[in-house]
Design goal:
34% of the residues lie in helices and 20% in strands. It is built from 9 helices and 12 strands. The protein is globular and about 65 Å long.
Length: 273
């Protein structure tokens, strides 16, 4: 197993990709911009797995065009076509064209109409190493974590790849058209009951050792949902319009601005309301 850490521990737009090898197969999970930087030394793998189809997680997929690629059935449109990917975000017309250009040019998007669907609980057997898909929607409809399991010196070892359940102080992101706050809360609860020794985020935190450490970080991450809601409830003690709520900022900082940020703030607060 090898982690390909991105710039500044995978700070957006970069990320941390993972290669898992067994006796009979090998997998690349979430090939990102960092793999493009390493294109001259790409690892050979048998197939590619995606935690979900957002631009930063699929930017290196085109480097593996000769191997099969997989995504959860609910996120397939994001790899099948650029129009399908744009539907996941659901931006308004004034932002859509600019963001689509960025995805094509900065994130090297190339469609994979041959993407293969997997479902919650599906197991990829690499020979002595297994990868189990854990459907954890909320960030997107098809977002998944992957539980990787192997036996070493008679003991079972597990690492969970968390994708964009990234455990940062920013908190959960559920501001796209295909995001869902209640799904995100259920996914966090699901992870509380998973046993593993190591945890890996795509952004920022990177590799985390120890379940106790993970659970502490997961609670702080989850608490951001309650924090946003408490601040919103206080703000609407007096009558407020949705435009005022969006302008006040409960997800982003007040100085953050732009059509995409406004869209994410509006959707997020709409779910809280």
């Amino acid at each position: 197993m090898r982690i390909y850490f991105g710039f500044e521990n995978g700070k957006y737009p970069y990320g941390n990709s993972l290669v898992v090898r067994g006796e009979t197969g090998s997998v690349m999970i979430d090939p990102c911009l960092g793999m493009i930087a390493r294109r001259d030394q790409l690892p050979k793998v048998d197939y590619v797995l995606h935690s979900h189809t957002h631009e930063d997680h699929i930017s290196g997929t085109h480097l593996f065009k000769d191997v099969a690629c997989y995504a959860h059935e609910a996120d397939l449109p994001g790899l099948q076509s650029i129009d399908g990917l744009m539907q996941i975000y659901g931006y308004e017309a004034e932002a859509l064209a600019a963001f689509q250009t960025e995805v094509l040019e900065t994130f090297y998007y190339q469609p994979r109409p041959d993407v293969i669907a997997f479902e919650d609980g599906d197991v990829f057997d690499l020979g002595g190493v297994t990868i189990t898909a854990l459907h954890t929607p909320g960030h997107t409809r098809g977002h998944c974590c992957f539980q990787i399991e192997w036996i070493e010196r008679g003991e079972t070892n597990r690492l969970v790849y968390l994708g964009d359940i990234e455990l940062t102080g920013f908190g959960p992101y559920y501001g796209d058209a295909w995001s869902d706050l209640e799904d995100f809360e259920r996914s966090i609860e699901k992870l509380r009951h998973i046993e593993a020794q190591w945890w890996l985020t795509f952004h920022h935190k990177g590799l985390i050792q120890g379940r106790a450490n993970f659970l502490t970080m997961l609670e702080a991450f989850s608490d951001m949902i309650d924090d946003r809601e408490a601040r919103l409830l206080e703000f609407i003690r007096s009558p407020r319009s949705l435009a005022e709520i969006v302008e006040h900022r409960f997800v982003y900082r007040p100085e953050n601005d732009g059509v995409i940020i406004n869209s994410a703030e509006r959707r997020s607060m709409g779910m809280h309301l």
